[in-house]
């Protein structure tokens, strides 16, 4: 059996990092880890190929080679995924669709032959056997969420790692919290399931043996969802990093209660964690309470961020506008918060009511759902009727982006971050980083409209933060991506939803 695994193009958002990747000559931020894991679960006798449409073209001859196409994606990839399904079916190719998108879109909307809802570890054996016998059913759905001890090593032989800026490892799935807008807990559950430390180390070994050095994103829903297991794992990762000259720089996602646990923070520093993404959402306590983000309440959020930064860990922040309790002053308050927080990478989006979430169910009951949305929280499409006037909300959203990603305020945030947060290790030399540095000097320092701010920033970084100069230049390049994306949002030039 010839199986073609296809990952649809990821649309441009802040998360795509598209305009920063071009500095390093990379084509996408991360490989499709879910499909690489599915590939490892498929029968060894099958011939497998993978096309990630963000890094290479999907050609008709690729489709002609295959007996079956396995297509996976998230809600935000809906438009591209469905066009791929249609293309396969037009050529008579059998299609299987899986991944988070199947939990948020109805079976019929996916237009494919077979839908897989749930996690691959429980379902792939049965599906593969049925496909070989020619008896595959339209729907495969697991009743339970599998333990991760059976999760195999992802099949890295299917990708060219150099095309990506970051490699990925998953240590756990699920999160114990219950934020109203969150689809993760609906898909992966509220009881975090974790891999054994030995499994994670085997994945690190595999990356190292394949020649990878540099950033590794631990793509957990919440790395500290089970703190006891996280501590155990961190001890093993620390020892591994020591034995391998701290070759990896880890990035992950966690809840803000990380700030309350100095032991955990120290362990993360020792293991080489350089950045953590926190869902901060809003500085408004009443919105946090209303959206059930209780772990962010009854604390000084700015203090919590600063505590994490003091451990040499950069904080990236997720922020949402459009809560029912948002008032007219929320836009100014959010800008002020972000500037004070020294968070350079602030992912600000409009609230989305994702199908399957508590929020979607509530708004459905209230008769406020407009459509299923497209999962892109930057394209200014609201899939529900907000309490605030919709035009005012979108205008306020755009004003926040334009203010936080203008050159001066952005570089000011990076300078504050560099003063607070001294990175633990110098970046390893790489030709990709050298190329990024030279291109940054040319594109931002010579050709850029904000070159005066740029040179002021470079001079400050070189004189006041020489040990962090590599980090400063990375932030300058990241700033370029956020500035271009912001311009596109302001110009209304992002793809709109839904198809
Ligand atoms: S903390 Fe994050 S992952 Fe956990 S429920 Fe809230 S939004 Fe979802």
Low-confidence stretches: none
Write down the domain tally: 3
Assign a percent range to the helix content: 40-55%
Q: What's the number of helices?
A: 20
CATH class identity of the largest domain: Alpha Beta
| Ligands bound, unique | iron/sulfur cluster
Looking at the overall shape, the CATH architecture of the largest domain is Alpha-Beta Horseshoe
Structural class: alpha/beta
Tell me the total number of β-strands: 14
Radius of gyration: 22 Å
Structure commentary:
The protein has helices at residues 18-24, 33-41, 60-65, 78-90, 101-104, 107-110, 120-133, 184-188, 197-209, 227-243, 262-271, 285-290, 301-310, 330-341, 358-365, 390-404, 407-420, 431-446, 451-464, 469-490, and strands at 2-7, 47-52, 68-72, 94-98, 114-117, 139-141, 167-169, 172-173, 193-194, 214-218, 248-254, 273-281, 314-321, 346-350. The protein is an alpha/beta fold and 499 residues long. It folds into 3 domains: 2-141, Rossmann fold (3-Layer(aba) Sandwich), CATH 3.40.50; 166-347 and 407-418, tm_1862 like domain (pyruvate-formate lyase- activating enzyme, Alpha-Beta Horseshoe); 420-490, no CATH class. The strands form 3 sheets. A 6-stranded parallel beta sheet has the order 2-1-3-4-5-6, with helices on both faces. Helix 11 links the parallel strand 11 and strand 12. Helix 17 (407-420) packs antiparallel against helix 20 (469-490). Iron/sulfur cluster is lined by residues 175, 177-179, 182, 184-185, 221-222, 255, 279. Iron/sulfur cluster binds at residues 175, 177-179, 182, 184-185, 221-222, 255, 279.
């Amino acid at each position: 059996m010839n199986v073609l695994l296809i990952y649809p193009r990821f649309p441009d958002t802040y998360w795509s990092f598209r305009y920063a990747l071009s500095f390093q000559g990379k084509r996408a931020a991360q490989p499709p880890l879910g499909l690489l894991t599915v590939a490892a679960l498929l029968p060894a006798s099958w011939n497998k190929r993978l096309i990630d449409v963000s890094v290479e073209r999907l050609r008709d001859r690729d489709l002609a080679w295959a007996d079956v196409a396995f297509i996976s994606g998230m809600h935000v990839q809906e438009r591209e995924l469905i066009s791929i399904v249609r293309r396969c079916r037009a050529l008579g190719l059998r299609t299987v669709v899986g991944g988070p998108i199947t939990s948020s879109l109805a079976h019929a909307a996916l237009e494919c032959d077979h839908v897989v809802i749930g996690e691959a570890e429980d379902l792939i054996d049965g599906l593969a056997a049925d496909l070989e016998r020619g008896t595959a059913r339209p729907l495969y759905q697991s009743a339970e969420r599998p333990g991760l001890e059976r999760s195999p090593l992802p099949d890295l032989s299917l990708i060219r790692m150099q095309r990506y800026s970051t490699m990925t490892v998953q240590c756990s799935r699920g999160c114990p919290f219950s934020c109203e807008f969150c689809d993760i807990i609906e898909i992966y559950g509220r009881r975090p399931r974790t891999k054994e430390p030995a499994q994670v180390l085997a994945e690190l070994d595999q990356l190292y043996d394949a020649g990878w050095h540099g950033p590794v994103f631990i793509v957990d829903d919440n790395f500290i969802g089970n703190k006891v297991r996280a501590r155990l794992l961190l001890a093993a990762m620390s020892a591994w990093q020591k034995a391998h000259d701290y070759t990896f720089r880890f990035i992950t996602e966690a809840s803000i209660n990380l700030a309350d646990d100095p032991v955990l923070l120290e362990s993360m520093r020792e293991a080489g964690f350089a950045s953590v993404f926190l869902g901060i959402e809003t500085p408004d306590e009443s919105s946090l309470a209303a959206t059930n983000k209780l772990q962010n309440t009854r604390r000084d959020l700015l203090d919590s961020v600063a505590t994490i930064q003091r451990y040499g860990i950069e904080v990236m922040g997720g922020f949402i506008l459009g809560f029912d309790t948002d008032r007219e002053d929320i836009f100014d308050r959010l800008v002020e918060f972000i500037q004070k927080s020294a968070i350079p990478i602030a992912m600000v989006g409009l609230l989305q009511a994702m199908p399957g979430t508590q929020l979607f169910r509530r708004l459905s009951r209230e008769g406020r759902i407009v459509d299923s949305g497209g999962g892109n929280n930057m394209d200014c499409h609201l899939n529900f009727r907000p309490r605030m006037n919709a035009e005012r909300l979108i205008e306020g959203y755009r004003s926040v982006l334009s203010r936080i990603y203008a050159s001066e305020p952005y570089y000011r945030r990076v300078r504050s971050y560099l003063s607070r947060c001294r990175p633990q290790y110098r970046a390893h030399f790489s030709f990709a980083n050298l190329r990024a540095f030279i291109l940054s000097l040319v594109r931002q320092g010579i050709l850029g409209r904000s070159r005066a701010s740029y040179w002021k920033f470079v001079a400050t970084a070189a004189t006041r933060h020489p040990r962090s100069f590599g980090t400063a230049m990375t932030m300058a390049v990241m700033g370029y991506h956020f500035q271009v994306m912001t311009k596109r949002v302001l110009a209304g030039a992002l793809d709109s939803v839904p198809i």
